[in-house]
Amino acid sequence: MAEVSLQNISKSFGESKAVRNLTLTIRDGEFVVLLGPTGAGKTTTLRLIAGLEKPDKGRVTIGGQDMAGAAPAGRDVAFVFQQYSLYPHLTVYENLAFPLRSPARRLGADEIDRRVRDVAKMVRIDHKLENRSTRLSGGEMQRVAIGRALVRKPSIYLMDEPLSSLDAKLRGELRLELKRIQSELGSTLLYVTHDQIEAMTMADRIGILNDGELIQLGTPREIYSNPVNLHVAARLGQPHINLIPEGLVPGGQPPKGTKTIGARTEHLEIHAGNGNANAEIDWIEHLGDQSHLHMRIAGHKLVTLANPYVPVMPGDKITLMLKDPLYFGSDGQRLV
Ligand SMILES: Nc1ncnc2c1ncn2[C@@H]1O[C@H](COP(=O)(O)OP(=O)(O)OP(=O)(O)O)[C@@H](O)[C@H]1O
């Protein structure tokens, strides 16, 4: 494995600026997730590292070596795509062995067999090695696709939304397994997604990309608790952070210049009305182990998470207070 570094990378397609002056280092053995909406430049960033696109400006290094001029095959990266790109006419075993059979690798049959069986166990597909790859469920095919990247032991794994075509349950399972495998192998991995749960649960560090720009890079906790601006604050958290005008809800100590307050569940205190009510419960969404309380205050709607036994009903008057919320200025930047 190796450290991979992007320095001041820019890439445009005609008028469209896909990546703008991006600087990012993925440390040896680190799992970095790029999180951003559609069109943010996530896939382009992976393709620039893989050598499938050439930067207009800037440098890519892998293990300290400048990759300018290096063809994709010479870069020692493994790419996993959103859609399992398996060879349909080959068995699972042959799909896994394929990347190891290149003459440049000069691996013996025993070594190939050992690696294929090790990886098949790791991605839990060892019971289907003789199956045609088309005779597998979606989750199994994606395990094989991930396994095929893993057998190679490259400098870095690049993964482009590899779980997005799977149903929620499988996605949850493979998320855990991918994280386990990555920690076991100490792999360097750059993973792109627009799923905040994947980013929060798997990443050592998350990079928030928007409109081709890296807006913030930090641990999941840092990104969640200390967003640098409104855009980052709105990317993470379920339900979405409430963004309300300063002065609407009492409490907190807004610094000079505060325009918007960011209030997540942990930043809101709710008390029974007792004569000072300033808000009203609109409705309650029961999610099973938790509920979403929808509230209204002076025409603004807020949502917060509550335990399902909280003794309130739609129409109840309540007192809403802020507790150390996030503050943002008129330019959307965080004020501390
Ligand atoms: N080959 C191309 N030709 C023209 N424009 C492109 C090309 N590849 C990407 N773009 C543009 O560059 C921008 C970034 O695209 P990119 O695919 O990197 O975004 P993304 O964050 O991966 O989006 P998604 O989540 O939808 O895959 C978009 O505006 C896209 O239309």
UniProtKB/TrEMBL annotation:
One of its GO terms (molecular function) is ATP binding. It comes from the Bacteria. InterPro entries: AAA+_ATPase, ABC_transporter-like_ATP-bd, ABC_transporter-like_CS, ABC_transpr_MalK-like, ABC_transpr_MalK/UgpC-like, Mo/tungstate-bd_C_term_dom, NA-bd_OB-fold, P-loop_NTPase. It is a peripheral membrane protein. SUPFAM superfamilies: MOP-like, P-loop containing nucleoside triphosphate hydrolases. It is found in: Cell inner membrane. Residues 4-236 form the ABC transporter domain. SMART domains: AAA. Its main location: membrane. Keywords: ATP-binding, Cell inner membrane, Cell membrane, Membrane, Nucleotide-binding, Sugar transport, Transport. The keyword Transmembrane does not apply. PROSITE patterns: ABC_TRANSPORTER_1 (PS00211), ABC_TRANSPORTER_2 (PS50893). Pfam families: ABC_tran, TOBE_2. Belongs to the ABC transporter superfamily. This is Multiple sugar transport system ATP-binding protein. It comes from Rhizobium herbae. The lineage of its organism: Bacteria, Pseudomonadati, Pseudomonadota, Alphaproteobacteria, Hyphomicrobiales.
